[in-house]
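Weekend entry, working from home. Most of the wet-lab plans are on hold until the incubator is repaired, so I used the time to fold the two sequences that have been sitting in the queue since the last round of cloning. Logging both here for the record. First:
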Amino acid sequence: MASANISASDDQFLCSICLSVFTEPVSTPCGHNYCKSCIVDFWTLSDVHQCPLCKENCRTAPELQVNTEFRDMLELFKRTRVAGEDGGSCASPEEVPCDLCHGVKRKALKSCLVCLASYCHIHMKPHHTVQALKWHELINPVVTLEDRVCQKHNKVKEFFCRRDGSCVCVVCLRDDHVTHTAVSLEEEMKERKTQLTHMKRSVKHTLNRKCILAKKIENAMMLGRQEVDRTKAETAEAFAALAAMIETKKVKLIELLEEKQKAAEQQAEALLRQLQLEIFENDRTRTKLEELSKTEDDFRLLQDLPSVPSSSNTKQCFTARVQPLLQVETVRSALAKLEEMLNQQMEDITREVNQADQEKTLQGLMPDDELGKIQKEYAINVTLDPNTAHPSLILSEDRKQVRDGGAKRNVPDNPARFDNLHFVLGNEGFSTGKFYYEVTLKGQTGWEVGVARESISKKGVNLCLSPENGCWTLGSYWGRCQANTNPPVILSLSQQPQKVGVFVDYEGGLVSFYNVDTRDLIYAFTGCVFAGSVPFLRNLLAFSVYSAKTRIYPLFRPSCEEGSDSAPLQITPV
């Protein structure tokens, strides 16, 4: 609806003072719109603050506010008018504007490296029609055109110096970079884009691996907390049961002592009552005897002389029952043994907890990553095949090390021997499954490792290290590490790897290279076709008679440094 109204009439977007399209439209209290500068100048030249259209007066100069809604409609009108005039569109803040447009800037379609300006499709026409401008180099629009021109020679930078890592012009290339390796910007840009793709893939792979590891750590922490809480609860329950058992045994022992004491007291009370009766009888007998001893009636002495009570064994019975029921030392000795046994058991439990914590710490330090699993499951023993080694290569007796002697030696000629390129193959070939090996590169200034088909050309120099020719290798040249694709991919590494791990998944078509020290993925060839092409007849026979697979072999090239003290390339055990 707004678009229809805008296209119907343009007068509403014209200021009544300057008769031009509004600039910073503001509204007066009466509701009319003016350019902010127009109404301010109008009131400055007048004695009263009056609306130019309705003549409404204001006692003081009103505070003018930008009409945001009207401003947005005005911006839409400007864009619509530009599009209606020439079919172009206004440049948004994120787009490159045309340098020749006045007022509303159209979106630039191209930037000229000669004119150092960006043009919309209207101002771009002279570069297509004027003969003198047709040779100008046009690129996609960019903001910083000055960076594309050499400040020293005022020429367009067309080349990239790989040694200095900078863009240079043709004069710089001729004067200051004549001995440097340089390529065109297009070629370098193509390689950088390819490198960017692989870097993004590597970073994504590393990010996913680290996210998975972080999730594993979080889950382990949660499970560990749950396990500790469960163990704490069960331990507290076990100690509470032990304490309850000890308390029960203590109570039972005390109750037994009290029962025994009560029984002894009851027996003593019975003895005491019997003794009191005997005392009473003895006292009465003593009184009678005193009376008889004072009488002078002899006949009474003969008749009333009482019998003396027999002696009882009360003393002996009472003495036998005053012995202690339990020796305290017996209790102390039993409790000391129980304490010693408990301490020993607790020491064993504490030692077990500490050992479990150390094992957990060591497990945390172990490589719980993809490389660690590969090393554990797919590591193999690789040795070098002397029948394939270039004549200048010197192998160790155990066939685990190789160095370049710098000069060819007299060795038997062999169809499998490299006669020009300084390579050597592994002795073991593979046509199925997965395998992994590691190579130490310490002291190597230039090297290559990887895998190659058994059918790789070993004679002459026409050997391109590319997957198309049956080679999947990683190499270091002039201090730069690269994956030997077609074209090669230069790898931006923070440091040159000292130990490289090579992992191959035959069925999965994968060859991966790892920095063993940092445990990072350096590069991965995916979609590898290890089976080489065979003649039609052989292929037909293979299809009809048997199924054959191409074997692939580990490939090595040490740095070429003369002298017996040069560091060898070593196949190290995983």
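Second, folded right after the first finished:
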Amino acid sequence: MKKYILIILCFIQFSVFAQETPRIEAIKSQIETLAVDNVGLTENVKTDISVANVSLSSFLLAVAEIHKLNFNISSELNKITIANNFPNVTVADLLVFLCKEHELTIEFTGNILSIKKYIKPVEKIVPKTIPMSYDMKNDRVSLDIKNDTLYTAFKKIMDKTGKNLVFSSDIENKPITFYVNNASFDDAMGQLAYANGLYMEKASNGFYIFENDVQAVATENSTSGTPKPQVRRRKSNFDFKVLDKQRKIVEVNFTNVPIDAVIHDIGTALDIDIFTSTPLTDAGTASFTSKSIYFDDLLTKMFESNQTNLMIESANNNNRNTNQNNPSANTAQTFFTFKKDRNMYIFGTANQLSLREISIIPLMHRSIELLTDTSGAGNTTRARSSNVGQNTGFGTSNQFDSFSNTGRTTLNRAGQGNQGNGIANTNNSQAEALINILPSDLIADLQIEADYELNSFYVSGPSSSVKRFRNFVEKIDKPVPVILIEVMLIDVSKLSVVETGISWGIGDSPTRTSGSLFPNTNLTLGAETVNRVIGGFDGFGSFNLGKVVPEFFANISAMEQDGDIKIRSTPKISTLNGHRATLSNGTTSYYAVTQRNIYGTDNPQTSEITNYYPIDAELGISIKPIVSGDGQVTLDIFVIQSTFGNRIDDAAPPDISSREFRSIIRMRDQDIAVLGGIEAKEKRDEGNGVPFLARIPVIKWFFSKRKRQDSKSKLTVLIKPTVIY
């Protein structure tokens, strides 16, 4: 550091020396010329002088007397005191040193040397040339003004263009800077005024009048004695017009104008009361163009755009700080807003108490509480977070507890516990408030509570944010359509059975003839009846069949069965748009599970516990309708039909036969959708008999039994939605 300081000092001394060298050299040259005739000034004559606290004039008089020189010493040198030691030095070198050290000069008049203080000559100020060109034909100008006084610049412009520029006296010496290239003269003057904080107005006579943008009015109010507020003049790029003062409708056109200037100027024109809890100088700038806009809407848009710009800037700063491994350098942004209290407009930052508002916003049509979809089809209130591959409807877990899909309480032998609760008894739907689906940026700076009894929101926060929240709620507070869904289930079953044959055998004891002949033939013939039949053939010549033993019997069967069963169910269910509706009608059966436990070893004891577990067979319908804007209805449908079968054991669970539909369809209001095609067909052809004899025509009917069975069942579902607004 010392090295640099020394270099700087040397440079300064060198600069000063370079400036004074011509003057000192001139004095030295004249002394050398004068030394030809004055021996006391030659190099051969040297002096040895040592003084302390002696005035410079006394010192020079002593030197003149010793060396016989003619010195005329100015009286002002009496004020200079010196303390020097000059051994073996010439008078010429001594005079040059003193002139250089104490800024002296010597005027020569013959042999007379007049020594006095050196006065620097006054430098002549050369006027600065302002680069400028003007095209009179097209009225276009180019200017390069850089820190010139307004008077000088305007004089140059007027001399070059012949235009008349008039300015107030308080800005005559104001330094201005402006550059423009080939622009129209009017635009150039307007931008010159804007760039240098001036107000420009072109008069009807062609004069361009310039004044300060802000003029302080020193006159005082005659009643209160307080000074009036400053009157801000509009900038050249800020234009507005009051269209309706009563309704506060204006026409605006401005670009990058400070928000505080917009509020002050338009507010003054509308004659409204304004209170600023925080100065709006930091509120930023705005650009806006509108042929007709309400003043309140203009304020809302300006502050929203300014808040968005601050958030973008803050995000960029955070990213920059993060990249620089300085995540703690985040700075909080101050958002400005406004609040309207009757006829008073209050402006300030969003976190100020005077700008906060507490409001009650009731809902007229919608419910503040939404019910979630607990059937497994996704959350109706959080559709954007639902899984695409999620199971829909019923039958996704337990085959025997498919529709209700709820945990059941077992019923023990003592009758304790609850019977399995079906879908009609399920009340575990979770409620979710409407606030949970509102956009996060809408409620970011608000405190919101939901009142379910009054179906209202309690909102606290900045007035502009509360207003934005209220407008959003009014847009979504519309009647939710109710969808009436008519379902028709048609189940058709057909059965055809043909069973014929004769069986012979010998029992343990004689068999008596018994059985039925009509409408189903199932007859058992004893030995006595058979012998009578055989005896009837004995009279035909020598043909004798003999008799059967007393224990002999014959069974003759011939049966044909036809069935046509048609079951029709027509349930109706209604639900709100976007909410799932379910309907269930079924039967619950139970099967027993016995558990035996043995306690002890020496004297073991047996404990037996029997639990009964439920099984459901039911007709279940689950439908979720969604109404689109064009009136079409999207239905998410799930239908299940299950029936009980036989049991392999009295304590075993019964067989269950199930048929189900799962579909998503789109249809118009009051159209009918047909869901069908679940058709079951069964064909059986069985027979047994005596080998070889069972294959001979005619004879085979006496030595075989045959059974043919055809069955067919079909389930069809018809669905008709009706939208009720």
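Plan for Monday: verify the second prediction. The radius of gyration is 58 Å.
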